[in-house]
Amino acid sequence: MKKSFNFENFISNHFKISIAFFALGLIFGIIYSINLLGFSIDSETLNPVNMRSIHISLMLYGFVPLMLSYLPFLLINKEVGVCDEGIRYLNLYTIIWYIFLVFMVISLLLGKNRGLAFYDFAYELNFLLAIAGVFYIIALYKFIKLYKVLPFWIKVCLRVVIIAPITLLILMNPIIGQVESTVTGPHGDNTLGMSLALIPIYYLIIKLLNENEFKARWNILWIIPTLFYFGTVLYRIFFEPLTYNQEWFAQYLTLLYVPLLYRWYKDSNIKIHAKKALLISILAFLFVDIEGNILFIPEIRWLFHRNDLIVAHAHVAMGIAVFFMVISMFINHIKELHKGIFLKFYLVGILGIFTVLSISGFTQAGFSTIPTDKLWILRTLFGFVAFGFIFAFIKIRTNYSKLELYNLAGIGADGLGGIFLILLASFTYPLFGFSFNGVYEYVVFTFVSLTGIIHFLALKNPNFTILTVIIRVFASAMFFALYSSNRLGIEALIICLFDLSFVFIYLIFFYNKEKLCKDLC
User: What are phi and psi of 306, to 5 degrees?
Assistant: First the structure.
């Protein structure tokens, strides 16, 4: 069996990169929660509609699904080892997914959304996910070559991932897909499908974490819902829409997962930390399953349809059930996850959000008189508590060299400054009397942010610092030319002088020292 430290490093690095997108999703969620309290500004990008859309999209398509997609590779690593060539293709898959997330966030920031609850980003971006899926398939093929005899779960997994890119493009298509046609009905068979998708993941996670060979029992409890799910989808595609009672019946088949997951969990033999995380996930999943079935009763459904109780339900489903699936998968690989206090912060935060939104839902349905705005204040505070989880991954240094301080200043000025301008320029420019067209400026702000990223890279490799200086020289020269030719106003001169100040600081305090040191060496 071939083991590789590169695989552990790969897992650790991408877990920490992807958790940054999760943190970003939490931030946008907190901003949206603050917006609901009446605190919003006239910003082209930082408006409640965009904030909600980005928050939901990052939660659904960011950290959680990306890390869940690593599950087959973690299991293969456990059973037969790793393939270094396969890691290369898995890395390409991951990077393209990051590119998709960047495109998704920026396009949603500028208001390009489809107005759908769970598939809000532009349809064209699904082609990036499909391309990523091709590299995922190649990576999986490279890994499974390590087996002499393919296990049954590998054969199933292969078939699923091969059809996934094409299926994605069809299902997400606004004309022929299922997305547009299922956003107004009761979604009983949709709920069954989403729940069904998690059952094999639970099986593979238990198989991954189990200390010995795991034998699944009571399989008839997932076979029956599977047959009915595909039957309802085919019926809707080829015949006619399902009636409410038909969808209701499909919805109630998810109750078969309650005894199934109980049996699997009791039969498992898993280390304590991972087993606790898995238990939290399963309990949250079963709670959502049972609550969802209750909410499907017609007399109850229309009281709570699209109010805060449903939002609370979604927070438990994604924020606890699926999130802790990922935590259980990686808790034996990521040392930061052993800091239980941060996971407790997160869990308290999400449960707090669930509680206040549930009460708010009963208020909106007429069963309570507690003011919704007061509950939303608590929702925002609990959001900050949940965000505390991220600090498990933040290491604060106190000692920096002068060159590192210079690069930190560049990160703050350009990196954070560029993000500030993207979010708030449409609001702040008019305050200072600057014109704002909202077109080319965003391109400039993006390049400003990239300079900050290069400063960040210079913390690891100081050679990148000179690149930031070169960029600033040309940028300041261009802004001076635009100012002197009266094509831009005083703001162009301010930017020119700002960049030149960084150039001169580097030349005076760092350039000669580096050159002399190089010559002496």
Answer: 65, 20
Q: How many residues does the chain have?
A: 521
Task: Give 47's contacts (C-beta < 8 A, 6+ positions apart).
Answer: 35, 40
Q: Please tell me the distance from the alpha carbon of residue 15 to that of residue 108, in angstroms, as a whole number.
A: 24
CA atoms of 193 and 190, how far apart (whole Å):
5
Concatenated DSSP letters for 249-312? Answer: HHHHGGGGHHHHHHHHHHH----HHHHHHHHHHHHHHHHHHHHHHHHTSHHHHHHHTTSHHHHH
Q: How far apart are alpha carbons 429 and 353 in whole angstroms?
A: 35
CA torsion sign for 421, 422, 423, 425 is positive
Token reading at 395: 């290491």
- Taking alpha carbons only, the member of 198, 349, 225, 383 closest to residue 286 is 198
Cβ contacts of 418 within 8 Å, gap of 6 or more: 445, 446, 447, 448, 449, 450, 451, 452
Burial of 100 (0-12, 13-18, 19+ CB in 10 A): buried
C-alpha torsion sign, points 311, 313, 315, 317: negative
CA-only gyration radius of the chain, Å:
26
pTM of the predicted protein model = 0.87
- In the prediction, which pLDDT does 45 show? 85
Left (φ > 0), alpha (ψ -120 to 50) or beta: where does 457 sit? Answer: alpha
Residues whose CB falls within 8 Å of the CB of residue 164, separated by 6 or more in sequence, listed in order? 133
Mean pLDDT, consecutive 10-residue stretches, the chain (521 aa), reads: 70 93 94 88 84 91 93 91 90 95 92 74 86 92 89 81 76 62 48 73 92 88 85 77 76 88 92 92 90 80 79 89 93 87 92 93 85 88 93 83 91 90 85 79 87 92 91 92 87 90 91 54 46
Tell the burial category of 82 from Cβ atoms under 10 Å away from its Cβ (0-12, 13-18, 19+): buried
Bridge partners (DSSP) of residue 81 are: 2
**Separation between Cα atoms, residue 12 and residue 363, nearest integer Å:** 44
> Would you state the structure tokens that stand for residue 236, as one six-digit string?
């809707």
3-state secondary structure of 81: strand
Neighbour count for residue 268 (Cβ, 10 Å): 19
Of 232, 233, 274, the residue nearest 249 (C-alpha): 232
Amino acid letter for position 9: N
AA identity, residue 191: T
